[in-house]
Design a protein that fits this description.
mainly alpha; about 60% helix
Length: about 120
């Protein structure tokens, strides 16, 4: 049995073979600059505890833009996205476990062990 010459000669298209147009790259770059300016502007407005959440939201949006466009995850296979999400979930899990344990730290446990801390 011989292979079909039309299909044998045609290479498989991979996600890395797709090129994002320069206009998209420049548009996303400009949007990242605008979001950076928005982050700086939001930091100058006193919104109390909301400032941190606004900055984290803008940073998340910027990270998603970089991930999808500049790291070409928009055109990758879904398994790569699943692996990325699983890795981020484990990072979140490990940081959460560490933060759960921080309440157990007591500078008064060993007298004069942490002399620079305010009492």
């Amino acid at each position: 049995m011989t292979a079909n010459p039309a299909t044998a000669a045609a290479p498989q298209a991979h996600a890395s073979d797709r090129h994002i147009p320069l206009s998209w790259l420049l548009g996303v770059w400009a949007l990242l600059l605008i979001l950076t300016a928005l982050t700086v502007a939001a930091s100058r407005v006193d919104l109390g505890g909301l400032n941190v959440w606004i900055a984290l939201g803008i940073a998340t949006l910027k990270a998603v833009l970089v991930l999808l466009i500049f790291m070409h995850m928009l055109y990758e296979r879904p398994i790569n996205f699943i692996v990325l999400c699983a890795a981020l979930l484990f990072v979140f899990l490990f940081i959460s476990l560490v933060l759960l344990d921080t309440h157990a730290y007591n500078p008064e446990l060993i007298p004069d062990y942490a002399p620079d801390m305010q009492r």
